[in-house]
């Protein structure tokens, strides 16, 4: 059994509201083992003998069937998430700033979002292994260039963003 981190996109942030206990139950019924949610924003740790693509397809189908919404789930091996967090290229704890990791499954979208034009004057962005690292002053997340870009429906199926602190909580 491999350990995976599953990130549900758009859950409990102004659209689809789900109780994490119900999410865990639906994923357990779908055949995953060791299902555990972290915080209330769609972060799930689980185990499966299948590869990431199969885990993603099964999780999306299970959530869509149970909750009736077009579920989008990005799945990464837990050790890959550990390496992504360790590679954060900026000072991770800057007073007055948020540090984020945007997970990106589509290489073309990764290249597009990593372009210097996507960076606002107070934002730092850097591409990583299937991610974009992002840091922005507190209070500017949604108003920054990257924040506004990430809100486009075009990126809904291939991206989701998590705070670096949240990722660290998941890996404990």
UniProtKB/TrEMBL annotation:
Pfam families: DUF1697. Gene3D superfamilies: SP0830-like domains (3.30.70.1280). InterPro entries: DUF1697. This is Pyridoxamine 5'-phosphate oxidase. The lineage of its organism: Bacteria, Bacillati, Actinomycetota, Actinomycetes, Mycobacteriales.
């Amino acid at each position: 059994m491999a350990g995976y981190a599953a990130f549900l996109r758009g859950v409990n942030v102004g659209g689809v509201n789900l109780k994490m206990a119900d999410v865990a139950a639906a994923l357990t019924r779908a055949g995953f083992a060791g299902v555990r949610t972290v915080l209330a924003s769609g972060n799930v740790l689980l185990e499966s003998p299948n590869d990431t693509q199969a885990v993603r397809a099964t999780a999306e189908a299970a959530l869509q069937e149970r909750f009736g919404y077009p579920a989008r789930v990005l799945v990464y091996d837990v050790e890959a998430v550990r390496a992504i967090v360790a590679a954060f290229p900026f000072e991770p704890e800057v007073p007055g700033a948020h540090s984020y990791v945007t997970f990106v499954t589509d290489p073309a979208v990764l290249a597009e979002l990593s372009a210097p034009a996507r960076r606002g004057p107070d934002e730092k962005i850097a591409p990583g292994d299937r991610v974009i690292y992002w840091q922005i002053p507190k209070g500017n997340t949604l108003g920054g260039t990257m924040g506004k870009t990430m809100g486009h429906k075009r990126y809904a199926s291939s991206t989701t963003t998590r705070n670096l602190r949240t990722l660290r909580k998941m890996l404990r």
